[in-house]
Every structure is written in C-alpha cells, then in structure tokens.
Write a structure and sequence with these properties.
This protein has about 90 residues and is α+β, with helices and mostly antiparallel strands. It has two helices and three strands. It has one domain (about 15-80): 2-Layer Sandwich (Double Stranded RNA Binding Domain), CATH 3.30.160.
C-alpha cells in the first residue's frame, strides 16, 4: 500500500480493505431506515501502551472506501506525518 500524503488522500478499494484487515478495523453500514442517506462507518482501535488510554477512531463516508480512507488519515494524524500506517 502506498503512503498517504495528507487528509485529502484516498485509498483504492483494495488498499482500504487490506489496511482495515491489518489494523483489525471494522466496517459498518447504517440501517436503511435512518433517513434519506446511508453512511459507512469505519471503526479502528489504535494500540496504546498499558499506561495510556486507547484511542478509538470512528470515521464516516458515503462509501466503504471513503470511510476507510478517513480512518487511515485520522490514524496518520494521531501518529504524525512520519508515523507508520499499519
């Protein structure tokens, strides 16, 4: 998978699925009765040392790919620009 350059960078579908698998992320879709539009939700728990609180990333998107990309970008912003995306 390629590096993400910033918050507007998106992943391919294959990259999004592979990244979620590697970080033990989950993907959900809102139920159809929740109004006019349905959204995808990517949920990723970031690992943390035992003495620190775990960070939970919840990212929304119109597509699964968009939600996963948003979660990956948030992961990247928490780790900093030089941090790993895995």
């Amino acid at each position: 998978m390629g590096e993400l350059d910033g918050p507007a960078q998106s992943m391919t579908v294959e990259e999004a699925v592979e990244w979620l698998r590697r970080v033990d992320g989950e993907l959900y879709r809102t139920p159809p009765w929740r109004g006019a539009g349905r959204a995808w939700v990517a949920v990723v728990r970031m690992p943390a040392p035992e003495d620190e609180r775990t960070v939970l990333i919840v990212a929304l998107g119109k597509t699964a790919q968009e939600a996963a990309s948003a979660a990956a970008n948030e992961w990247r912003s928490v780790h900093g620009q030089d941090g790993p995306l895995h």
